[in-house]
Write a structure and sequence with these properties.
Immunoglobulin-like; 8 strands; 109 residues
């Protein structure tokens, strides 16, 4: 399953100083809530992406805690005011403490 999990980002490559840009991200993950039963009637253990941390030039801009009600392949969008060129780093973490990261640069003019 870990090979199937992939973060995806939609980040503008450039912006003007002080501009507010929309950031979109999605991660492919099956998101088991712990409430579903398998064919033998046993509960499938919970395994969800439970956190997303986003930094811009190593400064935190978003820390999200996700709960079991989030769908498989969670999608999040947020806005960010950019004053300088830099790198957005996204780190997703699941219940098994596995994490996946992705980065994207924004050039500010």
């Amino acid at each position: 399953m870990a090979d199937d999990i992939k973060p995806r980002l939609r980040v503008p490559t450039s912006a003007k100083k002080g501009e507010v840009v929309e950031i979109k991200t999605l991660i492919t993950h099956p998101m088991e809530t712990g409430l579903r039963k398998d064919s033998d009637g046993k509960l499938v253990p919970r395994l969800i992406v439970n956190a997303l941390a986003v930094t811009y030039n190593d400064k935190p801009v978003l820390n999200a805690r996700l709960e079991p009600a989030v769908s498989a392949n969670p999608y999040l969008a947020f806005f960010l005011k950019v004053d300088e060129s830099g790198t957005l780093k996204f780190t997703w973490t699941d219940d098994n403490k596995q994490s996946w990261s992705a980065e994207s640069k924004i050039e500010v003019t």
